[in-house]
Amino acid sequence: MTRKFYEKINKSLKQCISVDTQDYSFVQCVSPMNSKKPDLSWKNLWNPNFGAPAALLILYVANAVFTPRFATVSNTLNMLLQVSTTMFIAVGMTFVIASRGIDLTVGSTMALVSVVVALLIKYGITVAISFALCCALLVGLINGFLISRLKLDPLITTLAALILWRGVAQVIGDGQLVPFTNPTFEALGKGYLGFIPIQVVIAAVVIAGAFFCIRSTLFGRQIVAVGGNEKAARLAGIRAERVKYIVYIISALLAGLAGLVETARLGLGDPSKVGVNAEFEAIAAVVVGGTPFSGGRANILGTVVGALIMQVISTSFNMLLIPFTWSLVLKSVIILFAIFLQRPKEV
User: What mean pLDDT comes out for the span 48-74?
Assistant: First the structure.
């Protein structure tokens, strides 16, 4: 009797939990009698596999035609250079949003890491980088504890932490710029590997690692399972608290890496300016790239495309001498449009 009972539960869970092989979207229990035919309307054109790449291609071609010197190799490399730090934090944000969370502390984490590494670089690169990344790890651990263990709301929690860690960074740095001279460390943000900037190479490695994690590992499937339906994920034996803990740690460490690269590029620590609005750039890249706020799907390549779209817009406005504020308006419209197309459909 007991065996039949557990077999029945097992069968129900298998019907309730499935992971789509294309984008790993978590699917809830839907009766075959009530399932609808796929919606092939124009709204589905903006999806992780088509909409964002098509928008990027259109933007790039249009600028190549109408913006002088836009489609040059040097300008393209410059755009990749500028967007690389956004990609670091956007990849981490993809993990968090896929688990149905949010992390607004990434910009403040960058500032904290920037000040710490600038102050400690005189004791050696290894000491400075290790201690700075430990600070980022601390941010991730605290976020994970508050959200996964204490069940606090991710938005409010990380909003408060954003203010907290920015304040800590300014206290440590005494509100001043912290200049330093260390050519070896500065190569992290200014050096080249052949003709490709080192930070672009690092970004490519991070993207490849994140893509592999989501597509080919059990942990990647657990992230989208927790984001899609946490209760069903728990019934399937997934430790949701641990998954949330880890995604916030990943987000914080990648924000710390972005802070290191940005500090190396600037050649100084800046507690006030480093990482400002970085969280919003990252969220924009994630949402435009096809990872919905509702969780249950993580599209790493879509996030990369989303970040590139935002950078192409900024670069084109700058080259056409259009005020930067107008680029913010256009980015906002694009984000709202992407969210509109990702809104839940009625069953």
Answer: 85
